[in-house]
Automatic annotation (TrEMBL):
Residue positions, PTM N6-(pyridoxal phosphate)lysine: 191
One example of a Gene Ontology biological process annotation: pyridoxine biosynthetic process
Pathway recorded for this protein: Amino-acid biosynthesis; L-serine biosynthesis; L-serine from 3-phospho-D-glycerate: step 2/3; Cofactor biosynthesis; pyridoxine 5'-phosphate biosynthesis; pyridoxine 5'-phosphate from D-erythrose 4-phosphate: step 3/5
Needed cofactors: pyridoxal 5'-phosphate
Organism of this sequence: Aequorivita soesokkakensis
Gene: serC
One Gene Ontology MF term: pyridoxal phosphate binding
Protein name (database record): Phosphoserine aminotransferase
């Protein structure tokens, strides 16, 4: 049976990427050696790292604009601390839109003053705050573009004269933005790019070197830039799979092409959530809904067993909501085909007809 993988992360990857990466584990570049047993400083793998970094900048339109792309370890959770270590001298401004931004705030407070410019916590993070003021004397402004747990997404970003830092872990490469508005972007690979184990960091070099504290080498962006993401042994397999995924995206036509498909998927599912009397969305305002993670619930818990039986029979995987929210969450990352969303909609409609 074909599986329809709505997992929030680690998530679905293109079948062609899975096949190529599986082949490379057995025989990389016809070397009769495995990708995961060769030196990370070998000519073949250095070419992988260079290509992955170049493709990331190319997709974001940031080539030759003073940015560097890095593939680091520790996930976005380490970037919560690392960004503050490199950029926070006295005060930073944070927008709190959910669990991950809340965790970023917690880490930054270890290093300086944090101003929470706005939060949607009072409504269990079911909307994106707007019309807030960002202190002009802050060292940087931090936001989270998409909130996987609660199903919200920033559809616009504030204008500010200070550096803007963004955690794009769950919607990187999914839509067109003016990425030059951001001085630092970071994203765990396991949502739209590759398997867990590596994190993309895209940073504008001119924002570095402005804090007075000593920065440990492993946390210092400058060190990683100088060593071209090879300061320590990188996560070889996740970087390789990320490179393949970025090549796949380029062959499709880039971000502009995948955005059209992502919009179709989101429209199809949200229209059904709004139309079907058995379901309700977690995010009431359409302008705040995530196109990557649609969160919803049954209005009648008595239908739960029947619905989940239908889900299983249809080959749908990974639909359960985060444990802190409950309900259901359909994660529609780049590699999820429109066909899979249609299968979920068909199940929702079948439940309505049988209720």
């Amino acid at each position: 049976m074909k599986k329809h993988n709505f997992s929030a992360g680690p998530c679905i990857l293109p079948q062609s990427v899975l096949q190529k990466s599986a082949d490379a584990v057995l025989n990389f570049n016809n070397s009769n050696l495995s990708l995961i047993e060769i030196s990370h400083r070998s000519k073949d793998f250095v070419a992988v790292m260079d290509n992955a970094r170049d493709l990331a900048l190319e997709h974001l339109g940031l080539q030759n604009k003073g940015y560097q792309a890095l593939f680091l370890q520790g996930g976005a959770s380490l970037q919560f601390l690392m960004a503050a270590f490199n950029l926070l001298e006295k005060k930073a401004a944070y927008l709190n839109t959910g669990t991950w931004s809340n965790n970023a705030i917690k880490e930054a407070k270890l290093l300086g003053e944090v101003v929470e410019v706005a939060t949607s916590k009072s409504d269990n993070f079911n909307f994106i705050p707007k019309n807030y003021n960002i202190p002009a004397d802050a060292d940087y402004f931090h936001c989270t573009s998409n909130n996987t747990i609660f199903g919200t997404q920033m559809q616009s970003f504030p204008e500010t004269q200070i550096p803007m830092v963004c955690d794009m872990s769950s919607d990187i490469f999914s839509r067109q933005l003016d990425f030059s508005k951001f001085s630092l972007i970071y994203a765990g690979a396991q949502k739209n790019m590759g398997p867990a184990g590596t994190t993309l960091v895209v940073i504008k070099e001119d924002i570095l070197g402005k804090v007075s504290r000593a920065i440990p080498s492993m946390l210092n962006y400058k060190v990683h830039i100088e060593k071209e993401s090879m300061f320590n042994t990188p996560a070889v397999f996740p970087v390789y799979v990320s490179m393949l995924t970025l090549e796949w995206l380029k062959d499709l036509g880039g971000i502009s092409a995948i955005e059209k498909v992502n919009n179709q998927k989101a429209e199809l599912l949200y229209n059904e959530i709004d139309r079907n009397p058995l379901f309700e969305g977690f995010v009431p305002k359409k302008e705040d809904r995530s196109k990557m993670n649609a969160t919803f619930n049954l209005k009648n818990d008595e239908l739960k067993a029947t619905f989940e039986d239908h889900i299983k029979q249809a080959g749908i995987n990974g639909l359960n909501g985060h444990r802190s929210v409950g309900g259901y969450r359909a994660s529609m990352y780049n590699a999820l085909p429109l066909e899979s969303v249609q299968v979920l909609v068909d199940v929702m409609q079948a439940l309505e007809k049988g209720a």
